[in-house]
């Protein structure tokens, strides 16, 4: 019988968290583990009682969730409790947190209830260590990835007279799509089109912001990112904060030039191209983004060579092997206790 791994999630919107868990659950690891996904809105109710071998929590932590996490720990005291930190990083704290000491205390108390805290990037892991949020023995860095096979096979697209920029992710303040739309407004005579994939709580506001413009298109949910990327000449990531940002890796695999804000895990991923790579960077302002868009049309950032794109395929297998090793270690400890 396969050991059970239960993923607890509160995010049902299109975005990296949900898709990452679904990819993991559908991967070859399903032959070794029985994966289940349970959505729980902690604003409405607490966690339930679960029959599982491993619990992996993906909720955004808060003071409100802390007693519910504690209850979960006490009711499943012999079950390993893992936490993957998708949400918080240095950029989030700078933009969203007014009382940083109180915020960091909440994280420290929450993390101490976990058997393991999983950072999604080296930058995030260093932020956790620098703020002394968890014992380093309980911290592991396990980056995100996906099966990039459909993307590395895409042909390199030759830009036409109308340059198509693509952006995708949850329509949330974090992603900076408002700044991107404002940037398009600043260059009305540029022969460009922007396609935005995703849904979220800011969809109405963003559509309203873009309503005077005819060259911005909201695609909505897209279950074929490969086809979407194939339509784009370049990808732009205007995030205000980004613990990891899988879109960067996907765009690299697809052979697309990338413009990005360089925050948190994004700059880390740009080093895949070159350790000192800094092309395509812009500041978090509409003016800087507009200049980057215009510069990209004439001088697009470098893309990976075909052999480099193929090398990215190993990242998915490495990620799966790390998850398998992590789960196996806890299962073996549990069986031997």
UniProtKB/TrEMBL annotation:
The keyword Transferase applies. Residues 159-302 form the Glycosyl transferase family domain. Pfam families: Glycos_transf_1. Keywords: Glycosyltransferase, Transferase. GO terms for molecular function: glycosyltransferase activity. The keyword Transferase applies. Signal peptide: none annotated. Gene3D superfamilies: Glycogen Phosphorylase B. Its EC number is 2.4.-.-. PANTHER family: GLYCOSYLTRANSFERASE (PTHR12526). This is Glycosyltransferase.
């Amino acid at each position: 019988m396969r050991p059970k791994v239960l993923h607890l999630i509160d995010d049902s919107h299109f975005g990296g968290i949900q898709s990452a868990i679904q990819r993991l659950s559908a991967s070859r690891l399903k032959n070794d583990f029985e994966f289940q996904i349970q959505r729980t809105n902690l604003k409405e109710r607490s966690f339930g009682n679960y029959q599982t071998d491993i619990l992996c929590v993906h909720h955004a932590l808060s003071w409100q969730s802390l007693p519910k996490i504690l209850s979960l720990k006490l009711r499943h005291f012999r079950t390993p409790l893992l936490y993957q930190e998708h949400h918080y990083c240095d950029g989030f704290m700078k933009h969203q947190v007014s009382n940083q000491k109180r915020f960091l205390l909440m994280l420290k108390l929450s993390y101490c209830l976990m058997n393991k805290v999983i950072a999604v990037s080296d930058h995030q892991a260093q932020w956790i260590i620098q703020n002394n949020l968890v014992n380093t023995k309980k911290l592991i860095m396990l980056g995100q990835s996906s099966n990039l096979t459909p993307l590395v096979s895409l042909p390199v697209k030759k830009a036409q007279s109308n340059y198509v920029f693509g952006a995708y992710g949850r329509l949330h303040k974090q992603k900076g799509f408002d700044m991107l739309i404002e940037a398009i407004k600043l260059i009305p005579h540029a022969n460009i089109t922007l396609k935005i994939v995703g849904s979220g709580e800011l969809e109405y506001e963003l559509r309203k912001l873009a309503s005077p413009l005819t060259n911005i298109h909201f695609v909505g949910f897209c279950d074929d990112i490969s086809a979407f990327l194939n339509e784009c000449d370049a990808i732009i990531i205007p995030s205000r904060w980004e613990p990891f940002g899988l879109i960067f890796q996907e765009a690299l695999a697809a052979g697309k030039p990338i413009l990005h804000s360089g925050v948190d895990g994004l700059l880390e991923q740009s080093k895949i191209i070159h350790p000192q790579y800094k092309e395509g960077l812009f500041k978090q302002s509409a003016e800087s983004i507009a200049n980057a868009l215009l510069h990209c049309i004439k001088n697009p950032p470098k893309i990976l060579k075909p052999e480099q794109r193929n090398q990215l395929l190993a990242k998915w297998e490495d990620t799966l092997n790390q998850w398998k090793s992590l789960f196996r270690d806890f299962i073996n400890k549990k069986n031997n206790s």
